[in-house]
Amino acid sequence: MNAQTDAALLEDDQASAETVEEQDGPPSEDATSEKNANPPTLDINFLALDGSPIAKMGVAIRWEGGELLARTDADGAIPPIEAPPGDTLSIAVQRFDGSYKKIGECCMPSSDGVLTAVSPNIVVETTTEKHEGKAGNAEERIPKPEQGDLGDLSAASKESEPNETAQPAGEAETKRAETAKPAPADNDKHAQPPKPAPKPKAQPKAPEIKAKQQADKPPQHISGKEEVKPKLEKGRDENGNPLAVITQKAIDWWNSWRMPTFNLWGTPASSAKGGTVPATPVKVDAEMVKKVEALLAFAREQTEYLYTEGTAGVLASMGKGSFKHAKKEKESETPKGLCYTYVKVALSRCKIVSGILADNKTSTAQSEADHYSMQDSASKAGPALIAKGFWEVTKEVPDLRWAAAGDIIVYTWSEATWNKEKKRKNNNYPNHGHIDIRSYTNYISDHIPKSGHPNWTRYNVIGIYRKIYDVEPVWRIKAFLRCLRERECTEEADDAKRYFLLNTAVPGTSGRRFSDDKKHPWAAIYESSAFDNDKSSAGAYQFKHDTWKDLLEKNIVCIPEGGKKFDKMAQDRLAVALMGENPWKGNNGENSALSDIRRGDIDSAINKLKNTWSCLPGAGEDRGLSKNKFMEIYNKYYEQAKRGLI
Predict the structure, then answer these.
(1) Which InterPro entries does the record match to this protein (predicted)?
(2) Which of 195, 443, 446, 599 could serve as 436's disulfide partner, Cβ 3.0–4.6 Å?
(3) What is the SS3 assignment for 349?
């Protein structure tokens, strides 16, 4: 049995990161008693492989010091489990003879959670037959694979739409034969009786016409349908043995033929690390961009849904067409501590992964505890992503602001955040972290942060993973940065040397160059009377000392311990970070200049940044630079960025 686990991962919005306990000091004894009176619960439900709930099944859940014996209800659920956090839960199901079979174990979460256990079997209704009998051909009624079974990921076109007025060839041929008139009689010859119309040939059954799924829209056809049970036909095989076969193909929301399951078995191809590859090969082209847009559109849409049934439960309802969630169940910017669940659902539903993220062990050597942790905590998602065909690009990307649209970002809680969570829960509380999908303008998980980005002080980025992606936002960033460097440092033609340029020599030194890039060149005299922030502009983007200091101290840009804080990489990161900060916060990040640049609205970005960089058109030191001229320069560097030259 495959257990898909979705424990509630505690993560708060930036505006409400501090809890009442943290604001008011240590909890009182009454508060502690009240907290202990409401221990965490774990909801468990059981589904067959086709997503149908398994009802009236005996279940035994045991842990040290307790047990629960129950029968599943019509939804396949049992009463919530209340056990000490961290205890191992043993899960067993009842056989027909009354004995119990252990199917797995899980760890009792420290917060309310959901576990969906998926059986490797499906239940069908049929009757028994005698074993011996006449030879038959029941195997021939089993559906055969066809080229179109992998699904339709391209937008519908007029040429591909069926012609509603077209007639089958056989029918048209018959009609022509029936209406044909005999030739006029020859006066010199007796009229010959007309030959009977030829009997039309039997025509093959017309293939079923499927409504094409548009790739540039989120997958549809997941709700409002009546559940279709597998249709069985009985017969005998060539040896005369009884055989029951499912005769129709089960079509999912992408028009893919799948056994009526959650797509758990993937495709025939598999990656070297035990994961699966996309069912349809993809290239970094317009087709891939459509897939990225479809993923982001659904991920954004589902931030208004309130999932309570776990990943497998959500996907099962989609597969059966019984998905009942609707928009406005919650506010898009409201987190529910279920970032991992929402990302898993988006990746499975949009067919970025086959099956469910973390459904199987990454290798035979992975322990049960490690596998459970990978299913339970977003911070452990890296190996699961790699097993599903993603590759890690963390070292290739300066930071998460530079991630391509479609990239998956994995975080741990910061040490301070984790200590707060352990204080609220217990000392063994795991570092669940966070996971989200980078969009063109913001970051999407179970919510879209009001600020447009995760709380910089709450998380540490530990991995950026890529499978389908649009890198154009990064080209735009690089082109805009090159324009800034050129206009801020017009006296220096060598772009590499611009990173070491000073507006004013640091007091006590001569010359307008610096060589030590471990920190801002004016930091050495920050506490002296000679310090003047207005004269401290330095580097390729002419950062003043206090701006540099503020970005680092607020953790808006995090430099690893021992890392250089004003080298080329740091200066590029600081400039991009400044584009995404005040005064354009709010509206889920859509208003920031960085978002403008990433989506290609350069004119809007210039208007927002001209008070930050005075070299931009319309600013005080633009030297007559018009927007048209700026765009001419920008387009030149954009083309260079596309070719990897900058």
Answers:
(1) Lysozyme-like_dom_sf
(2) 443
(3) helix
Encoding tokens for residue 378?
């977003």
Task: For the chain, give the mean pLDDT.
Answer: 80
- Same domain for 407 and 433: yes
Q: Which residue has the higher pLDDT, 183 or 480?
A: 480
Going by pLDDT thresholds of 50, 70 and 90, the confidence category of residue 120 is confident
Q: Do 329 and 392 belong together in one domain?
A: yes
User: Which CATH number goes with the domain that contains 488?
Assistant: 1.10.530.10
Question: Could you tell me if 38 and 110 lie in one domain?
Answer: yes
Q: What is the 3-state secondary structure (H, E, C) of 300-311?
A: HHHCCCCCCCHH
Phi/psi for 463 (5° steps) reads -170, 140
Q: Are 222 and 321 in contact (CB under 8 A)?
A: yes
Of the candidates 59, 90, 118, which is a domain's last residue?
118
Using an 8 Å Cβ cutoff, are 402 and 576 in contact? yes
Q: What is the mean pLDDT of residues 482-488?
A: 97
Task: Flag whether 638 is in a domain.
Answer: yes
Indicate if the pLDDT at residue 80 is higher than 60. yes
Q: Give the C-alpha separation, 103 to 90, whole Å.
A: 8
Q: Please give the residue range of the domain that contains residue 538.
A: 473-642
Which of 574, 571, 570 minimizes the C-alpha distance to 562?
A: 570
At 435 the three-state DSSP class reads: strand
Q: How many CB atoms lie within 10 A of CB 163?
A: 6
Q: How many CB atoms lie within 10 A of CB 363?
A: 12
- The token pair at 408 is 């998956």
Report whether pLDDT(174) > 70.
Answer: no
251, pLDDT greater than 80: no
Within this chain, do residues 465 and 384 fall inside the same structural domain, yes or no? Answer: yes
Q: How far apart are CA 566 and CA 514, in angstroms?
A: 11
Residue 229 falls inside a structural domain: no
Residue 91 to residue 98: CA distance in whole angstroms: 15
Query: Do residues 415 and 541 share a domain?
Result: no
583: preceding bond cis by omega (within 30 degrees)? yes
Residue 251 contacts by C-beta under 8 Å, 6 or more apart in sequence? 210, 257, 258
pLDDT classification of 499: cutoffs 50, 70, 90:
very high
Q: Please tell me whether residue 430 adopts helix, strand or coil conformation.
A: coil
- Its pTM stands at 0.73
| CATH label of the domain that carries residue 90 | 2.60.40.1120
Tell me, yes or no, whether 203 lies in a domain: no
CA distance 605 to 476: 11
Residues 509 and 582 in one domain: yes
In this structure, the answer to whether residues 484 and 611 fall within a common structural domain is yes
Q: What is the pLDDT of residue 51?
A: 75
The answer as to whether 249 is a domain residue is: no
DSSP 194: P
- CATH code for position 383: 3.90.1720.10
319 and 466 in a single domain? The answer is: yes
Distance from C-alpha of 40 to C-alpha of 21, rounded to nearest angstrom = 18
Extended beta strands in 83-140, E state: 88-94, 100-107, 113-118
Of 471, 499, 521, the residue that ends a domain is 471
